[in-house]
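Below is the data:
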Amino acid sequence: MKVLIADDHWVVRESLKQVMRRLRKTLEVYEAETFEEAAATLAAHPDVDLMLVDLVMPGFDEFEGLRRLRADFPDVPVVVISVHEDVEYVLRSVEQGVIGYIPKSSDGEQIERALERVLAGEVSFPRRIIERSAPAGAPKPAEIAPPHQARSLHALTGRERDVLSLLGRGYSIKRIAEELELSSQTIRVHLGSVMKKLNLHDRSAAIHYAISLGKDVVAAGRG
C-alpha cells in the first residue's frame, strides 16, 4: 500500500507513519512538507492509495488546497488531519470529497480506529465534533438544508431516517449496521434509497446533508 503524508511538522508525519505501519505491515510511505511537494509526489506516483493531509501547511490554502487536490487528483482518497475542531471545517472538508477528518488532538487509539475505518473502505468523521452544540447565532439545521430537500425527508421510511441520522453523527456503515442490528449490505441499500429520494449524488453529499440537518432528520418523520 502506498500512502502520502503531507504535513509541515515532522513529528506529526512520524506519528502517522507509526500508526499506519501498525495497521499495514507492507507500507510504502511518501512525505511532503508543502503543497507543491505533495502535488509533485502525486504526479510522480499516480498509484498512491491514500493521502493524509493537513489543512495548514506552506502553499496549502485550506479548502482551496483541497479543491485543487480533488480537481487534479480525483482518484486519490484524502483524509484531513487538522488542528481545527469546528463542525464547519468538517462540513466544508466533506464538500470537497474527503473520506475522513481526524483532529490532531485525537490520541493514538482514536487515530488508529479512524484509519482502520478508512482502510476498510468506510468514511470516518469525529462524532464528538459533529454532535457538539452549534454556537449561539449559528444557522439552524433547517435553515441550512434546501427547502425542497427538507420536504423530501417526509418521503423517507423510518429505517431510512435512522440510517441518515446515524450517518450524520459520524457513524460508519459498519457501526450503523451494529447499532440497528442489520447487515452492512442492508444499510448500504437503505442509504442508496435515501440518496435517490433526496437527490444526493454520492456519500459525501449524504454525510454533509445529514450533519447539517442533525436531529431534524428524526423530527421530520414525526411531523
About this structure: Residues 141-222 form a domain with the Arc Repressor Mutant, subunit A fold (CATH 1.10.10.10). The two ends are 48 Å apart (CA to CA). Residues 141 and 213 are 4 Å apart (CA to CA). Residues 133-151, 218-223 have pLDDT under 50 and may be disordered.
